[in-house]
Amino acid sequence: MITRAQRVRLGVFVLVALALLLGLLVSVLGSTLFADRDSYEIRYDISVSGLEIGAPVKFNGVRVGRVERIWIDPHQVSRTMVAISLQAKTPVKENTRAILNIQGITGLKFIELVGGTSDATTLPTGSTIKAGESLVDKLTGQAEQLVLKAEMMINQINELTGPDNQGLFKDALERAGSLMVTVERTVRDNETGLKTLVENLNKATERLTATLDEFRLTAREAREAVAGVRRKAEGVLDSTRVAALLDDGRGLMADLRKRASPAELGQVIESLNTLSKRTDGLVEKLDLIVSRSREDLRDSLRYLAQATENLRDFSRLIREDPSRLLRSTDRAERALP
Question: Which of 8, 86, 127, 189 makes the best surface tag, with the fewest CB within 10 Å?
Fold first, then answer.
């Protein structure tokens, strides 16, 4: 059985514990609960979904207050009013903006006060802080515009590739394919002659290159000989040296006559004549082939001209009005050729 003394001791213990708890709460929270705070209002013309009462208010990343109240402006229902309280003497300037940011991945939002310069006027308590546009809001608006433009472009592409134009594109592709087949057949039929012509041209080019190299070598040797003569003439000119110079000159002239002999030139001319004859034969063969396939080539060229005209009209329309790719236009029906 509990005695009266035990009850008294228990009551004293409870009272002392409550007093200590109240003292602790007052010492820890008293400075926050009873401190002077500055009140401001913010008007948002966008949705504040995710912003709750008690959400933090930060100034350049530092927590300086909290959200006290959220309500709809009765005079303009599309506007949301937010009341915040900040620590006393928080430097809120006229050019300070209040933007909504997201806390992590929870979807909850908080208010971030950004901007403001030291030389700007400080807003008095109770004033309205102008709302700013956050990066998320900018990206959302740009994403909506991009989606709208993409949808318009897709509609234009669908219109260009619609049933009215499919026939034109198909006809142009078929004509281009027919032309390529004709050209490929012509090249394949004359492959041997073309190969022979290329080989002859390569051989003639090699011979001409060799001849030019010999002429260059002869000219270099002549320059060296002239330079040697000049150097020797600068010295003492006696009969022995003059005779030696004359002998060198005679040898040089003989070498030149040997290199430019009629036999060498005749060989080059003969090669050119052979090449000319083979070229004439190839031209005759090509003329025969062209005469045989003249009708096919004429049809292919006509198809190609029509396809080119269609592509030219399409390019002209796009060049005159590039917005045709982004907006629909009423066009008259065009009869297929």
Answer: 8
